[in-house]
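Handout, section 4.2: multi-component inputs.
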Amino acid sequence: MKLDKKGLLIVMSGPSGVGKGTVRKSLFERTDHDMVFSVSMTTRAPRAGEVDGVDYYFVSKEEFEKRIQEGKFLEYAKFIDNYYGTPLDIVQEKLDAGEEVVLEIEVQGAMQVRKKCPDAVFIFIAPPSMKSLYDRLLLRGTESADVIKARYDKACKEVVMADFYDYIVVNDTVENAADKILAIVRAEHAKLARCIDGYNEIIKDRKAK
Amino acid sequence: MKLDKKGLLIVMSGPSGVGKGTVRKSLFERTDHDMVFSVSMTTRAPRAGEVDGVDYYFVSKEEFEKRIQEGKFLEYAKFIDNYYGTPLDIVQEKLDAGEEVVLEIEVQGAMQVRKKCPDAVFIFIAPPSMKSLYDRLLLRGTESADVIKARYDKACKEVVMADFYDYIVVNDTVENAADKILAIVRAEHAKLARCIDGYNEIIKDRKAK
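Output:
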């Protein structure tokens, strides 16, 4: 029985290399929840096999910039020559329909969402150690030592942003991290502020007996 | 991996007849948690089969009143001629040892704990409907209509106390309620305020790389 009928906006974020994508993937392979993943919008060209509305919403640069001016992004960023963002209207529609919407975004984006949606749940995915974070960045590819150092420096700056989140979930194993996220979502729905209205409905006929 | 090394004090409460005891029993039949139950102290005589330190700590009236004066109760109440209370020192020892301590107490007692332990987690067990609460009070025994009415009136007053809790968990099924309590405990440990110290330990060597 659900006292809280509204959908939750769940913002999953964390430093580069922490494995946010892997945790998110594991979460969506499970069937014991009703969460949906928020598809990002981008101006970059679709790659082979990518489907519009599934992998990304693919739009033109003009359309993206028009949406920015209309305030239609929860968050957005420009990487090299392309924009990436979370469409506010689409997320809002899903929340209104009672869906749980998961965003998996960079820490800079999460800070933008914090300002627009203080009611969202902010989960920081943390590495079990700085060494493990460094090792993951090393394992990622065949980049030069300089590139890896730059990424690690970036991750070191992101790692201290945990302070601005509601929860810290250590990605020690992907299973553990996904379990904790599910527990957080369940617990958030049971929070007083989210369910007091539904509860007051239940008890309003108490004088009738 | 646990960032939060301290034990949680979990206060389970709710109106008379809501089934707190059944939920607590179900919780302690499960093995997927480390919670321990806080044994109450009482001045009433042990019944056949009751074991000191397991069912209750049985003490004399003098000892109980001495402990009250020394501030050694998290909460206590007097019913008819007997005292019942939660010994503060024993709970504190368990929390310090990192144990999760569950109190299952009346709403009046929970309000006392709120004042002494603002850091505890307060869970209100709610009925799925007022009718179900009334029916449970009816089913309890062979009491007269007057006694049942008095109990229901008391429950109606307790039901509005949910406002003072952190979470509301509906006892629609005992399994669901126990599941939600476990989720709340997991989520509470992941809360920023509870795990930021442990997290700062992890990231303090970030300059070393």
